[in-house]
Design goal:
Helices cover 28% and strands 32% of the residues. The chain has a four-stranded mixed sheet, covered by helices on one side. The relative contact order is 0.25.
C-alpha cells in the first residue's frame, strides 16, 4: 500500500484552524498525490472527526474514509 503524501495532525485544533490547515495542504498537494492522512483524535468528541469526514469541500477530494482500526484517523483520497 502506498504511503500518504502528507500526514496532518490536527487533534487539539479548533475546527476553524483544522479546516484552514487541511485546506492549505489540499491546495499544495502535487497532482500525483493519492492520499492525505489526517489525525483528528476521537477521545474529546467528534467535532474534528465530523469536519474531516463530511465538512470539507474541495475539488481535490475524491473520498474520505475512516482508517481501519483507528477511529482517530481518516484518509482523504485525492482526485
Amino acid at each position: 500500500m502506498k504511503k500518504p503524501y502528507k500526514i496532518i495532525d490536527v487533534h487539539g485544533f479548533t475546527p476553524e484552524r483544522a479546516k484552514r490547515q487541511i485546506e492549505f495542504e489540499l491546495k499544495r498537494a502535487p497532482q500525483n498525490a493519492e492520499k492525505i492522512l489526517v489525525i483528528h483524535g476521537h477521545n474529546r468528541g467528534t467535532v474534528l472527526r465530523d469536519l474531516v469526514r463530511s465538512g470539507l469541500d474541495s475539488p481535490r477530494i475524491r473520498e474520505v474514509m475512516p482508517c481501519f482500526g483507528n477511529d482517530g484517523e481518516s484518509t482523504i483520497y485525492l482526485n
